[in-house]
Write a structure and sequence with these properties.
- It contains 14 helices and 14 strands.
- The chain is α/β, with parallel strands linked by helices.
- It is globular.
């Protein structure tokens, strides 16, 4: 298990040592998010705005306007719901260069409960023109993507897991913003997943399905916007069945992004794993994963339903040609 919060701060410090434009803003969460280490190293480039998240984004916009590269961090529940108007207008509409970081997305809020549990943040950010939305799955992918996020000219929304998570990628693997990473090839079904909760569960589900003779591909869509259309269409064509998995509402997140691509280019039978018309609740992550059906067991069950469709995956694919 690796700590993505540590990876985030260490990588950001390394980048800031070479680029004095990088600054960090927090909403009284430096210890929680781990950026106190950044403040200790760069006290003049670290600003605590207090419990005033919308103001924090406004200040970040001002810093960007004078040439800085601001990273503004808070819990994802606040980054989405409280900061949306300022992020939309002061940053994106103004074509500025702010990186908004939302931590503990979805069920990762755990014991902070329903008020702190964002299942809608990706959906909100996806509606903003040209805003990039990133949901890394492990410490390795985060370390590789963060420099690209830093020097992407424009606004980025980064979902960040603060807690330890399994490493699903291999050392030496390359990552490109906007391009998904294939974790496992397969011919019967394509499982498209995002984030630190669902990508490891998708890998485990594929392992269980393989033991039953099902060949399931697993693709990590760490960048939800812009979606990797080429990867979506490649595996839809190859397998004829797609299952999306996300730590988010099934509405307007990864599943919706994939469905939009398929409906306009290659209509494909698909299913979606995610939160379905529910609010958050208090509980540890293991309990919440089971309660919302965000685990390998739920993925396997849904995959089998798709595989049992009357046409079957290969017949369905052949019928489109």
């Amino acid at each position: 298990m690796s700590d993505m919060r540590t990876a985030y701060v260490e990588t950001l410090i390394g980048l800031a040592e070479k680029d004095e434009r990088i600054v960090v803003l927090e909403a009284d969460l430096m210890r929680a998010i781990g950026t106190k280490a950044f403040k200790d190293r760069f006290p003049s480039r670290s600003i605590n705005l207090g419990v005033a998240e919308a103001n924090m984004v406004g200040v970040a916009a001002g810093l960007s306007a004078v040439g800085k590269i601001p990273f503004a961090s808070t819990f994802a529940s606040f980054a989405g719901r409280r900061d949306f108007d300022q992020f939309f207008l002061s940053v994106n509409y103004a074509q500025l260069n702010v990186k908004l970081v939302g931590t503990d997305p979805g069920i990762l809020a755990g014991y902070n409960g329903g008020t702190h549990m964002p299942f809608e943040d990706v959906g909100l950010m996806r509606t903003i023109p040209k805003c990039v939305v990133v949901d890394p799955s492990d410490e390795l992918s985060l370390r590789k993507l963060l420099p690209q996020i830093t020097y992407h000219q424009g606004a980025v929304y980064l979902r960040l897991n603060r807690k330890p998570s399994p490493q699903v990628h291999q050392e030496g693997e390359e990552f490109t913003l906007g391009k998904a990473n294939l974790l496992k090839d397969g011919t019967d079904l394509a499982i498209f997943a995002s984030g630190a909760v669902l990508v490891p569960e998708a890998v485990e589900a594929a392992r269980r399905l393989a033991a039953e003779g099902v060949s399931a591909a697993v693709v990590d869509f760490h960048t939800i916007k812009p979606i990797d259309r080429e990867m979506v269409l490649r595996f839809a064509e190859k397998t004829g069945l797609v299952l999306t998995c996300e730590n988010h509402q099934i509405v307007n997140g990864l599943g919706s992004a994939v469905a939009e691509v398929l409906s306009e280019n290659l209509p494909t039978r698909m299913g979606r794993i995610g939160v379905n018309e529910q609010f958050g609740q208090v509980g540890d992550v293991n309990y919440l994963r089971k309660a919302y059906g965000l685990d390998a067991e739920a993925i396997c069950a849904r995959a089998k339903l798709l595989l049992d469709c009357p046409a079957g995956p290969r017949k369905a694919a052949a019928g489109r040609k």
